[in-house]
Amino acid sequence: MNKKLSKSLSLKGKTALITGSSQGIGEGIALAFAEYGADIILHYREDQDQVANVLEEIGEFGVKSSVIRADFSKTGSVASLEKQLNKKVKPDILVINASLQIAKPWEQITQRDFDIQMNVNVKSTMLLIQRFSPSMIQKGWGRIITIGSVQQVKPHPAMLVYAASKAAVLNMVRNLAMQLADKGVTVNNLAPGVIDTPRIREPLPEVDERIMKRQETPLGGVGEPLDCAAMAVLLASDAGKFITGQNIFVDGGMSL
Ligand SMILES: NC(=O)c1ccc[n+]([C@@H]2O[C@H](COP(=O)([O-])OP(=O)(O)OC[C@H]3O[C@@H](n4cnc5c(N)ncnc54)[C@H](OP(=O)(O)O)[C@@H]3O)[C@@H](O)[C@H]2O)c1
Q1: Ligand 1, CB cutoff 6 Å, lining residues
Q2: Is pTM, for the whole model, over 0.85?
Q3: What band does 234 get if pLDDT is binned at 50, 70 and 90?
Q4: How far is CA 168 from each of CA 47, 97, 181, 193, rounded to the nearest angstrom?
Q5: Please, what's the b/e burial string for 153-165 (b: 16 or more CB within 10 A of its CB; e: otherwise)?
Q6: C-alpha 128 – ligand 1 centre gap (Å)
Q7: Is 245 within the bounds of a domain?
Q8: Does residue 127 lie in a domain region?
Q9: Which of 70, 161, 184, 256 has the fewest CB within 10 Å, making it most exposed?
Q10: For the domain that residue 179 is a member of, what is the CATH number?
Q11: How far apart are CA 254 and CA 57, in angstroms?
Q12: Do residues 122 and 165 lie in contact, with contact meaning Cβ atoms separated by under 8 Å?
C-alpha cells in the first residue's frame, strides 16, 4: 500500500518556529507539528511556567525542541529572537501567531494603544518574514503561516485597531505569496473565529447589543486549538504545496 497522503502530511526533517506557542492556538499548532514529526522552536513573551509545560509535552513526541523569548512590542525584539537561535538552525516553517488585542470602545483608543497593537501584529510580522524567509528561499522550500482572525471581515466593535491589523497582515500575505511563489515558499493566512483559549476569557467592554447579534457562529459554540492546528499541518506540509496566498477561515462559518 502506498500511503501517499500520510507521507506528504509528514513534517519529519523540518524545523518549525511558532510565535506565541506557550498557550492557546500556538500551543495547539506546536503540539500538532511535533506529532507530525517536526522539530519545534517554541516562543513566549513572559509566562515561563506555561512554556515549560508545553516544552515537556513536545518532548513526548521525541522531536528536538527549544524555547526562545521576545516581546514584539519592544524595538529590536525580532533581532534578539534570532540571536537566541542556534546559528545552524534555520526554520523551514514559520507560524506568526502571537498577537496583541486591546479591547476598548473606539472613542477611547489612545495613540499608544494603536502603536503597540500595530507593532506587535503588523510590524513584527514583516520583520519576522524578512528575517526568516531568506534561508527558506535558499533551500527552495518554506512555509509561512500568519494567524489572522475572522475580524478581518467581521470586526468586533471593541477591537477597531486589532481588527484592522489583521486585515493589514492578510494584504501582506497576498503580496508576499506572489513574490515568493517561484521560490518554493508558500505564504498563507489562517483566520480563526472564536477559539477556546485563555484570551477569550478576558473581559470585554459593553458594546451595542444589535451589533453583537451579528457575531454568532453558524456551526454553534466555539472552536478548539486543534481545529486550527489541523489546517496548519496541511498548510505546513508537502500536502499543502499548491496552496498559497490564501485566507482560510477556521471559524465555524462565522465569517459568512
Ligand atoms: N482565541 C481566539 O478566539 C482567536 C480568534 C481569532 C484570532 N485569534 C488569533 O490567534 C492567535 C493566537 O490566539 P490565542 O487566543 O491562542 O492567544 P493567547 O492565548 O492570548 O496566547 C497569546 C500568545 O502570544 C504571546 N504574546 C502575547 N503578547 C505578545 C507580545 N507582545 N510579544 C510576543 N508574544 C506575545 C503569549 O505569550 P505569553 O503568554 O508569554 O505572554 C502567548 O504565547 C492570535 O494571533 C489571535 O489574534 C484568536
Answers
A1: 20, 22-26, 44-47, 50, 70-73, 97-100, 120, 147, 149, 192, 194-195, 197-200
A2: yes
A3: very high
A4: 28, 15, 20, 17
A5: bbbbbbbbbbbbb
A6: 16
A7: yes
A8: yes
A9: 256
A10: 3.40.50.720
A11: 32
A12: yes
Q: What is the rounded distance in angstroms from the CA atom of residue 33 to the CA atom of residue 9?
A: 10
Please identify, by atom number, the ligand 1 atom nearest to the C-alpha of residue 47.
Answer: 40
162 is catalytic: yes
- Atom of ligand 1 minimally distant from the CA of 147: 45
State the sign of the Cα–Cα–Cα–Cα dihedral 11, 12, 17, 21. Answer: positive
CB contact at 8 A, 158 and 206: no
Task: Return the closest-CA partner of residue 233 out of 86, 71, 67, 33.
Answer: 33
Query: Cα–Cα distance between 29 and 158 in angstroms, integer?
Result: 27
Whether residue 256 is contained in a domain is answered as no
Residue 94, classed as helix, strand or coil, is strand
Three cell numbers written together for 197: 483559549
| Distance between CA atoms of residues 216 and 68, nearest Å | 37
Which cell goes with 51? 512554556
Does 1 score more than 90 pLDDT?
Answer: no
Cell output for 138: 535558499
The candidate with the shortest Cα–Cα distance to 188, out of 145, 223, 134, is: 145
Domain span holding position 144: 10-250
pLDDT digits (tens, 9 = 90+) for 172-216: 999 999 999 999 999 999 999 999 999 888 888 877 666 666 667
Structurally, the chain folds into a number of domains equal to: 1
**CA–CA gap between residue 116 and residue 72 (Å, rounded):** 9
Looking at per-residue pLDDT, the higher value among 215 and 109 belongs to 109
End-to-end CA distance of the chain: 40
